[in-house]
């Protein structure tokens, strides 16, 4: 299972903050599974994606069981690590 966490206005928009998904594949396909608009917002730079607490820009990155994927709005300041663990 992959744990997907949504943050900020995105969680409010989609109506959930965390889900476990039986998924293995690339990050692009995971984003499409979440919502095609989410994929488009990541591609445009409006949203960031982190896998296991590291920001990932390559949507071809493989996602495997036990990975934690966070999708969050862009931000400034603060500690990314702390925000991802909250």
The coarse overall form would be globular
Largest β-sheet summary: 5 strands, mixed
Helix content: 25-40%
CATH topology: Ubiquitin-like (UB roll)
Question: How big is the Rg?
Answer: 12 Å
Strand order of the largest sheet: 2-1-7-4-5
Strand residue percentage: 25-35%
Identify the CATH homologous superfamily. Beta-grasp domain
List the secondary-structure elements in sequence, H or E: EHEEHHEEEEH
- N- to C-terminal distance: 20 Å
The tally of helices reads: 4
Poorly predicted runs of 5 or more residues: none
Number of domains: 1
- Could you tell me the number of beta strands? 7
- CATH class descriptor name: Alpha Beta
Mean pLDDT, all residues:
89
Topology:
Blueprint: E1 2-6, H1 8-14, E2 18-21, E3 25-26, H2 27-34, H3 36-44, E4 47-51, E5 54-55, E6 62-63, E7 68-73, H4 80-85
Parallel strand pairs: 1-7
Antiparallel strand pairs: 1-2, 3-6, 4-5, 4-7
Helix pairs in contact: 2-3
Tell me what the structure shows.
There is one protein chain. The strands form 2 sheets. The protein has a 5-stranded mixed sheet. A two-stranded antiparallel sheet has the order 3-6. The chain has one domain: Beta-grasp domain (Ubiquitin-like (UB roll), Roll). The protein has 86 residues and is of the alpha+beta class. α2 (27-34) packs across α3 (36-44). It has 4 helices and 7 strands, in the order βαββααββββα. The radius of gyration is 12 Å and the shape is globular. β4 and β5 (54-55) form a beta hairpin.
């Amino acid at each position: 299972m992959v744990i997907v966490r949504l943050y900020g206005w995105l969680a409010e928009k989609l109506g959930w903050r965390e889900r476990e998904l039986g998924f293995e594949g690339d990050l692009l396909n995971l984003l499409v599974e979440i919502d095609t608009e989410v994929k488009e917002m990541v591609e445009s730079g409006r949203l960031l994606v982190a896998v296991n607490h590291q920001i990932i820009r390559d949507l071809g990155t493989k996602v495997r069981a036990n990975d934690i994927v966070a999708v969050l709005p862009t931000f400034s300041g603060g500690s990314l690590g702390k925000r991802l663990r909250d």
